[in-house]
Amino acid sequence: MKNYLIDDIIPGLVKQTGYYVGVFEDTPDPDIKWPHRHAFYSLVWFIRGDGINVIDFDEYKILPNRIFTINPKQIHNWNYSVDSCGYFLLVDEHLAKHLNFDFSSPFFDLKTEDILFIKEIFVRMLTDNNQLPAISYLISLLSAPEAKYRKISDKIIKYKEIIIENYSQNFTIEQYAEKLKITKEILNQLCKDETGLTAKQLQLDLKITEAKRLLLYSSLNTGEISFKLGFEDQSYFSRIFRKKTKLSPADFQKKYLKFR
């Protein structure tokens, strides 16, 4: 599956900036394949419109004044109405780390009293020569408790990164905790506080999400996928997959062929 860069979406972009701010309805549809992955972070604010946004196989309604956040490696597809309009922000991975651009939820809805202010920030970003201060302010504002949105902690972000980088390894929770320089108990408590899951459950969720991607968008068979993701054997992987999704790997493939 194609993993798109910002300049694939916006041809001719000056790469040194590491970001792009645009008006949704004024931007030509890019010549890309759907669904796809991004190698960058994106934030899309629908001021008007309806439809469906599919992120990692979960469907979310497109509604007025709903802001979607899509992280690198997530599989993304959408279908929106022709009258949709709004703003979007694309940020590459290097700059995103400096801006703390890493949201834990796929969307959030703006409060009515915040709409005009957020719009003013986007207008400023589109007109200022130096857009970074406004971008940084927007991200901090949307991450604030007033937006009813909670950012995930740095330790959990790092924990997820280690899992993703080592899918094939059967690390214990103690080993993950050692890499994070914390105890197993603290790691479990952080995971529960931030996600409602234990460290082991979060690890399994990430592996199952990657399994879904591989089942639909790779040529690997079930046995190869189970090995790639560090499961003991194919039957164990299939049992865990069914427990998490209520479908066997084969049934999952059949159900989601419509997204290919």
Automatic annotation (TrEMBL):
Residues 157-255 form the HTH araC/xylS-type domain. GO terms for molecular function: DNA-binding transcription factor activity; sequence-specific DNA binding. The keyword Transmembrane does not apply. It comes from the Bacteria. Keywords: DNA-binding, Transcription, Transcription regulation. It holds the Pfam family AraC_binding. SUPFAM superfamilies: Homeodomain-like, Regulatory protein AraC. This is Transcriptional regulator. It comes from Elizabethkingia anophelis.
